[in-house]
Amino acid sequence: MTKLIYTAEEIEAEHDYTSLHIESGLKLHGGFDDQGQYISPRTRHRWDAVKAWRESLVRRHQPLVEATTELLTEENFPNVSQQIHLLKHGIEQSFWDSLTITGLIESRGKALAEVEAPDFQNIIAEDISETALGHMSKGLLRTHGWDEGGVPGSGIGGHDVMWYAVRDLIFGKGKYPIPEAPASIGREKNEREMLHLPPEYEMLIALLMNLLMIEVRAERAFDFYEKVMRSEEVFLDRRREAEEAVTLVNRIRQDEAVHVAWLQVAISEFRSFTIKSLDGSTISGAEILDPIWEKMIHWHAVEIHTTTRHASIEALKQKILEIENGAQIFGQFESLAA
Ligand SMILES: [Fe+2]
Ligand SMILES: [Fe+2]
Questions:
Q1: 108 alpha carbon to ligand 1 midpoint, in Å?
Q2: Boundaries of every domain in the chain
Q3: Dist. CA 109 → ligand 2 center (Å)
Q4: Could you tell me whether strands 26-32 and 19-23 are parallel, antiparallel, or unpaired per DSSP bridges?
Q5: Closest-lying ligand to the alpha carbon of 104?
Q6: Backbone phi, then psi, for 273, in 5-degree steps?
């Protein structure tokens, strides 16, 4: 029998590492096995659990919601060639800002460790004790938050510290001032959208969907950062550090995979269940969730990009025009857009 019920202690348990994860003098989460392979933090049982819940869903012939970068139909701004072009011409601050803001947003993610999820068993007709949905408060949200922003007071860095380390490897410390991160990076609605659910359940389901799309966008960002930093045309005097930075980015990427996996399973489980509606009737989870999931994908894949792009281009244009040959460099930058 596959194990499908875990304690919070099991979900949070660490591997026995052969060596700890230390980079640029910083203590970081996770560790290494005796082969020197990086192991993500708190995954002694977490991966097995998520895979078991996923298999159980598949056994019930229930589909998984799509959660790949294929959903992201709008190009990243700037694209890889544009970013390399900027760095080659000494326009570095936007790249510094983007790495710093990524770290600041990861740091905010530690709030997930404190989220009190309502008990979904109260609104679901089927037994959820053997599902990801049934384990949100048994370690899934807490480990997720700790991975992003570290365990408070532990002195061990999570993803926030790892991104700052990436940035400092390629730029050196304190090269530019710390920028301000956007107030929100998720789709937020003031009015209710899932009227069958009590508000606290709607809030949580919307949070899971936003998180999953943010993780999907992060996956594309990893690819972007890796391609830029791997380019032999940039950070010419810090190629060794840039390679180390890419290694760190890929460790973060490895850690994120379990986030994508559990969120995808939990959302798909919700779709598959019978929900006890506030009006006393029952309704399928898919009927509640699918229209909102469509809107969520569209917001993260398209709206956020089209609404911010003009301002981003204008801000960058101003910076570029300040330097010698700025007009020409900006013209080339524009011609590199797909
Ligand atoms: Fe993260
Ligand atoms: Fe994550």
A1: 10
A2: 8-335
A3: 8
A4: antiparallel
A5: 1
A6: -95, 165
Instruction: State the Cα torsion 281-283-289-295 to the nearest 10°.
Output: -70
Residue appearing with tokens 């930093």: 229
Mean pLDDT confidence for 27-51: 98
Beginning with the edge strand found earlier in the chain, give each strand of the sheet holding 38-39 in spatial order: 19-23, 26-32, 38-39
Helix (H) or strand (E) run with residue 46 in it = helix 46-59
User: Which secondary-structure segment (H or E) carries 298?
Assistant: helix 285-298
> Residue 32: in which H helix or E strand, if any?
strand 26-32
CA of 163 to the centre of ligand 1 (A): 9
pLDDT in tens, 191-243: 999 999 999 999 999 999 999 999 999 999 999 999 999 999 999 999 999 99
HSE-CB for 22 with a 13 A CA cutoff: 5
**CA 125–ligand 1 middle distance (angstroms):** 33
Using the mean position of ligand 1's atoms as its centre, give its distance from the Cα of residue 106 in Å.
5
Question: What ligand has the least distance to the C-alpha of 210?
Answer: 2
Cα-to-centroid distance, 147 and ligand 2 (Å): 7
The tokens describing 104, both together, are: 């600041």
pTM attached to this predicted model: 0.96
pLDDT at 190: 84
- Which ligand lies nearest to the CA atom of residue 161 in the structure? 1
Q: Quick: pLDDT tens for 80-105.
A: 999 999 999 999 999 999 999 999 99
